[in-house]
Amino acid sequence: MDISLSPEILFYIGFFPVTNSFLSMLALSAGLVLFSLIGVKRLKDVPSKIQSVAELVFEGSWNFALSTIGDEKKTRKIFPYVFTIFIFVLLANLLTLIPGQSAVSYQSAGGAVPFFRAIMADYGLVFIMTITSVIMMQIITIAAVGPLGYAGKFINIKNLAGFFVNLFKGKLKFGMLAQGCLDVFLGFMDLIGELAKVFSLSFRLFGNVFAGEVLGAVMLFLLPFFGPVPFLFLGLLSSCVQAFVFAVLTLVFVNMASEAGMQSE
Amino acid sequence: MDSEVFKLLAAGLCMGLGAIGPGVGEGFIGGKALEAIGRNPEVAGKVTPLMFVAMAVTESTGIYSLVIALIILFS
């Protein structure tokens, strides 16, 4: 069994290593862009089969996002980003179920290199997607509460300063000291929470997809032909659920970020 | 014993111990969701997606240990 954590490098363009998951991602992106470009031109009042499926998916997602956020104007702004992530992750995960792709390989100096790879099993791509979302959340929070409010979320020394002011006046208020220390600690925990979002979001998707690949390979090795079948069903379920969860968590986090101002008032 | 043995042992322990918490947690979530659906079957459509999201969040610690175990094994 040859399992590697990082994607295999196929060839170099200049200094830029082209990996097999990068190629798969380009192919999927090109397919999605072509589908939407052609699809938009061919929209009809009486939908064809493909158009009705696309409309079904779109409307279902729109209604779900609207019921989660509850405000149509805000949904219009957030929905395109989240829906793109959902469709991209879903198709990337479903593409791994097409049989026979691991047989297409490329003979290099270090042995056979598979030409296709599960797109989400490349940590680089998942990390970039997550960090884009998290940076966007920070920007939305800053836009909602202002730069000072944003800094105040992490550094809250109002009560601690109050304790020292009272101390200079000769009054000892231990309640204020405890509250101040707690505020500082909670601000610190908020900071860690923002960082943890990056890792929890990205590791969840990457871990699930990569574990699915490894599990499939191990089962194929232990029990050929029939052993992997139940695990393929599990992969089908988890590929849909993970795409859904990634998109929904992004939606919920962005929504929370945009509501940060209302809570503090 | 050489370092390879310890690597395998560490990966197995990491995954096995890390699977306890998410297992208990997901069972709890699934049980509670079924309880809610049993009490009020009309909300099944609303409870199920929320249940999946909660499960995925609970699962993340298990996924961390899985990633660590895979890193120990394959790199």
Task: Describe the model.
The complex is a heterodimer of chains A (265) and B (75). Chain A has 265 residues and is mainly α. Chain A has helices spanning 20-41, 49-69, 72-95, 123-154, 158-168, 174-222, 228-258, 260-264, and strands at 9-13, 16-19, 105-108, 111-114. Chain A has a two-stranded antiparallel sheet. In chain A, β3 (105-108) and β4 form a beta hairpin. Chain B is mostly helical. Chain B has 3 helices and no strands. Chain B has helices spanning 3-18, 20-39, 44-74. In chain B, α1 runs antiparallel to α3 (44-74) and α2 packs antiparallel against α3. The two termini of chain B are 20 Å apart. Chains A and B meet through α6 and α7 of A and α3 of B.
**Overall 3D shape of chain B:** elongated
Show unreliable segments of chain B.
none
Beta-strand share of residues of chain A:
5-15%
First-last Cα distance of chain A: 58 Å
Overview in brief:
The complex is a heterodimer of chains A (265) and B (75). Chain A has 265 residues and is mainly alpha-helical. Helices cover 74% and strands 6% of the residues of chain A.
List the helices and strands and how they pair.
The complex is a heterodimer of chains A (265) and B (75).
Chain A: E1 9-13, E2 16-19, H1 20-41, H2 49-69, H3 72-95, E3 105-108, E4 111-114, H4 123-154, H5 158-168, H6 174-222, H7 228-258, H8 260-264
Antiparallel strand pairs in A: 1-2, 3-4
Helix pairs in contact in A: 2-3, 3-7, 4-6, 4-7, 5-6, 6-7
Chain B: H1 3-18, H2 20-39, H3 44-74
